[in-house]
Amino acid sequence: MTEAANERGAEAETTISDGVVDLIGVLAYGELSAFDRMSEDSRTAPTLSGRAALASMAAAEIGHYARLERFLAEHGIAVEDAMKPFVAHFDAFHASTAPRSWLESLVKAYVGDGLAADLYREMANWLDQETRELVLEVLADTGHSAFAEREVAAGIAADARQRDRLALWGRRLLGEALTQAQYVVAERDGLSELIVTGSGDLSGIAGLFRRLQQGHTKRMQVLGLG
Amino acid sequence: MTEAANERGAEAETTISDGVVDLIGVLAYGELSAFDRMSEDSRTAPTLSGRAALASMAAAEIGHYARLERFLAEHGIAVEDAMKPFVAHFDAFHASTAPRSWLESLVKAYVGDGLAADLYREMANWLDQETRELVLEVLADTGHSAFAEREVAAGIAADARQRDRLALWGRRLLGEALTQAQYVVAERDGLSELIVTGSGDLSGIAGLFRRLQQGHTKRMQVLGLG
Fold first, then answer.
1. Residue ranges of the Ferritin-like domain (chains A, B) (predicted)?
2. pLDDT in the model for residue A11
3. Homologous superfamily of the A8-222 domain (CATH)
4. What is the pLDDT of residues B18-65, one digit of tens each?
């Protein structure tokens, strides 16, 4: 047990494991990043209603963030401390995958949120009931997916060359996301313990990764990019 | 009565005047602009908690925006149509007053929100009860003011030269805001009618402007820049 976990024990009624703190921390920073990304995209939306729609989805992510912050606070943890280990990896992912167009940013949000949701939903099964319900609650789609599907379909219909370019883009996003996720897990003992224990063994982890890739393939097909 | 107002009459139970549509439209675009500004500022916040705090305030502005959108929809008006006449003026104001630092952006939000709130609060007195309550509700401070006061006080304490620079900045913001506000009123018949009728006469308008300037002076003093 780390020092931080010992201090937490002194402050809070129930302690949560380092792995759960990591998981909630990475979820919280994911929400804050999603807010950033959607609010930035809203500024480049081609219409005023697209702009307002994205701003509303960004605001909903902050509602999820507040839930996670409260959960951690109830267990004596500052959300900033829980998020800090993940800032650099998220930011590296975003820097290496900066969208160059409105459609690229929609595909990125769609693919990234989908991957993250699949991963967290699997992990939720390994948690106690309270934490599981929290994780499932903040994974609720803020409406971005349906919005992205409509916009991408319209964009491909208007310009067929977009299709191939966006299909390549989706493939690159998957690669970059899995790379950063592997760095994160390698660095965080609590998180990797949670994953190893939860998935059972090495073949369990391989199965998890396979399912994540299958989910990605399915999403690209839904977007018309498969 | 404009054509738009006639169409509205056919769709909705109660019609609202062109001036009220303008007022709600300008408020709605103000909320969307405030969201943009705060979400952008959140990205440059010097700390992770400052970043989360600004993101939460930005999200609260979108809550206000949704209230205004619903009110207009209940009267058969699309919020996009009501906002459209004001987009260029708001964007011109923001382009001519792009902050060059974290403290400049906080002062801008503080001064801009304060001015807007003073103006809308006066105008709320001229409205029917339902509309008045809506306007007062969406003017509720999202917590930004107290946050800005703390950050600016800390910034001035750390670097005294900042004080003079920020004081000049506040003066320039007032000038640019009043310039754009006058353009808006000159272009929108419904809005200028609302203001002339509400304030009584030309001396009433002069009094309104005087009070806006006094409110600004007071705010600059609260920030330690007066």
1. 18-197
2. 45
3. Ferritin, core subunit, four-helix bundle (1.20.1260.10)
4. 999 999 999 999 999 999 989 998 988 888 988 998 899 899 999 999
Closest Cβ–Cβ partner in B55, B62, B83 for A48:
B83
Chain A residues with CB-CB distance to B59 below 8 A: 35, 58-60, 62-63
Say if the Cβ atoms of B35 and A84 lie within 8 Å: no
Give how far B34 is from chain A: nearest CA, Å: 11
**Measured CA distances, B97 to B100, B108, B119, B173, B214 (Å):** 9, 8, 20, 7, 21
**Is A192 within 8 Å of A186 (Cβ atoms)?**
yes
Residue B15 has pLDDT above 90, yes or no: no
Residues of chain B in contact with residue A62, where contact means CB-CB under 8 angstroms, are: 55-56, 58-59
**If you average pLDDT over residues B65-94, what whole number do you get?**
94
User: What's the CATH architecture for B3-222?
Assistant: Up-down Bundle (1.20)
Q: Compute the radius of gyration of chain B from its Cα atoms.
A: 18
Query: Which tens digit of pLDDT belongs to each residue from A178-196?
Result: 998 889 988 999 999 999 8
What is the identity of the amino acid at A91?
Answer: D
Task: Specify whether the CB–CB gap between B180 and B186 falls below 8 A.
Answer: no
Instruction: Measure in Å the smallest separation between the Cα of B205 and chain A Cα atoms.
Output: 32
Chain B: nearest CA to A73, how far in angstroms? 14
Q: A179 CB near a chain B CB, below 8 Å?
A: no
Query: Which residues in chain A land under pLDDT 50?
Result: 1-3, 5-12
